[in-house]
Amino acid sequence: MCDRAQNCSRLRSNPPHAMATAPSKCFIVTGPPGIGKTTLVMRVLESLKTSHPHLNIRGFYTREVREASERVGFEVVTLDGRRGTLASSTVLSAESFRWPSVGKYKVDVASFESLALPELQVKEGTDLFIIDEVGKMELFSSSFFPAVLKILESNIPILASIPIPKFGRDIPGVAR
């Protein structure tokens, strides 16, 4: 567990990692869709798990869901491997017609919240939060942004991704 009074000395004990010398920081990966934000976050996560196997890392990432070569949605994946729908272009149910939309995708806010929000609870002993991503779909959850703010206020290090819109306009809510 990371002792806040000792300034997360365990994270500093192995200087080759950027986080090792900068406890209580927020690291943001940003860029347009498809640039490799999630790939970078996952590589950092895997490196940390290998070099610091006892770190308590909480959070989630999102990944594309494809059928053949076509993207049909996104899923939310917790760091312990639980998965659920974030958004889909193929779900057709009476309930899904009430879900918010981003382009052709319907966002399953309840599914996202059931997996992601418990992973974003600030708990004693958490060494790092991974949040991939803070985007338009995730922000349809009215509880998501307050959970991110609580993490920021906790001074626990965060590695997060934030998309840059394709056409240069801020994505509502993401700019905050």
TrEMBL record:
Gene3D superfamilies: P-loop containing nucleotide triphosphate hydrolases (3.40.50.300). The keyword Hydrolase applies. GO terms for molecular function: ATP binding; ribonucleoside triphosphate phosphatase activity. The keyword Nucleotide-binding applies. Keywords: ATP-binding, Hydrolase, Nucleotide-binding. It comes from the Eukaryota. This is Cancer-related nucleoside-triphosphatase homolog isoform X4. It comes from Phoenix dactylifera. The lineage of its organism: Eukaryota, Viridiplantae, Streptophyta, Embryophyta, Tracheophyta.
